[in-house]
Model the fold of this input.
Amino acid sequence: MMISVVSPFFNESLILEGSVRHMLANLESLPEEWEFIIVNDGSTDDSLVLANRLALEDARLRVVSYPVNQGRGYAIRQGVLVARGEVVVTTEIDSSWGDDIAHRLAAVLRGDPRVDMVVASPHLAGGRYVNVPFKRVFLSTTANLFFRTTISADLTMFTGMTRGYRREKFLALPLEENEKEIHLEIVSKALAFRYSIREIPAVLEWRDQKFSGLKKSRKSSAKLGKLVRTHTVFGLVTMPFRILFGASFIMSLVALLFLGFGLLRLWAEQPAFPFAVTGLILLLFAFIFFSVGSLSWQVREVQREIWALRVRLTKQSGEGDREPGSS
Done:
């Protein structure tokens, strides 16, 4: 089994050389054959020049590049597409998830052939954030709690890039997102195709200054406002039936309380009409929410069949890999 580690980068000339050398040294202890693929996502600084120079020193370092910035999602897809390994690990280029993260992710896939995908999570017991601004920790924690409600309660980390995949399973997913929403898209479509997903605890530590020689703390370059909006919309649209069913259940309980209280007042020969009407209105809304939720669930199933059909047609045309869910 060969391991391919894929790391996209954009305008990282300050830390690129130190980060790449550090990652190469970390990967030396992998028991399998490996390669390190760095994807230049249209950098406008000297990053590509540095990357190509480093690639001349080690044949296991491969550089993928294109001239215009396309986004993290596009970069990840390009890296996995050219990877030669049966197992692909995607992670940040600065080893911010730990020096042994590729080893740990690969070990899970190596040890259990039933697992299709492994996610590194700082939200599990044993995981944590180090040197990450409170604002980012708060947003990440809140967002992932939200996605546990809208996508799956079985996972704790939906937004991170650091994951391990069986390459054929990754390529079988009909992915379209070019930005950071790809992390949500991968999880939602993997769940739709009933992939086996496992999580491991991990420590996320921001440490760019270690490789650049800078003394100041790392600053986020993410456009947080846009990221919050797009991730929220994605979460609501992906599996709305989970929220609708939950709202229907809560409204039903409240409606029963109103109706029960109305019956008690009626028994005591006190005015009960307002409570009965309120309870019936809430029951009506609960039924509407449940009906819309059922419809959205059916739409999700139809969407899954459409994705599967797309994969089959792509496979038949000779452009794709294996169909999702196949063994």
